[in-house]
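Appendix B, Record 12. Input sequence as logged:
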Amino acid sequence: MLFLKNYAWPWALARAGILGMNRRNHSYISRYNPRRLYPLVDDKLKTKRIAMAAGVAVPELIGIIREQHQVSRFSEMVKDRPGFCIKPARGSGGRGIAVIVRHQEGFYYKPSGRPETIQDLERHISNILAGLFSLGGKPDTAIVENLIHFDDVFAGYSFEGVPDTRVIIFRGFPVMAMMRLSTAASGGKANLHQGAVGVGLCLRTGRALRAVQFNRPVRRHPDTGLDLHALRVPGWDTLLRLAASCYEMSGLGYIGTDLVLDKQHGPLLLELNARPGLSIQIANGRGLLPSLSAVEEFGDTALNVARRIEFAQKRFGVFEP
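Logged structural output:
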């Protein structure tokens, strides 16, 4: 079992099969992800549209706000929605996402219970349009989506946020997966660098292998106390099929697929990432390189989704915690 310290010799990382940023960028992202396709995943609205065209399930779209003069229509857009989510189309790292779980008597409540006024939300949307949260600070579009109600099996595993599953897909093959659980330290966000918990998942069963926070092993959720090693994702094969099918949908060879399990609609695709981070290796306690090399050596990308998953589960899916 790999344990990453704050500092490690390069030879030790190489022996452990750790994929570094330079090699990821040069050997995988640049080689397998055509630049012309980046806009399809850097813009969440474009991702949603190609997903819907491909029959891939996504959260329901309530509305789109592109111009400042449309902001005044927002209250009418959500008046019949008890909960919703506002996202910048070209945001990254969870920045600019505002989740509202209920509204009453003129106030809109976040998962923390903090109330917001319609003026607060309109100001937030204006900031999105101005590019405050977008890549490169360019003017952006605000997306309003239906609120996700995550499956009850995950109750207590996440603090004020929706638990999501990241699956790395290489040439259509799932090669590594983890669940990201928000904490008080992460401010309800699912970003590991902000303090969320990462739980490595077995590709064969969807069960937890180990868990980390701030790159250190943890056994229990820091806020709820639940045993993280007891976590298991229901409907795992369905979720993997959804993730693997994003290869054909996007045309990208090396992607991170972020999915959530909704209690009513099942697995939904939240977004795609053409430059997925490397912390998934820490959550799983092993490096990505052996799995990536095995897919390259296998070479057959003409297999259908089911056969690719079967290959991945047999080769990469049995790891003891």
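The chain has two domains: 10-42+152-316, 60-146.
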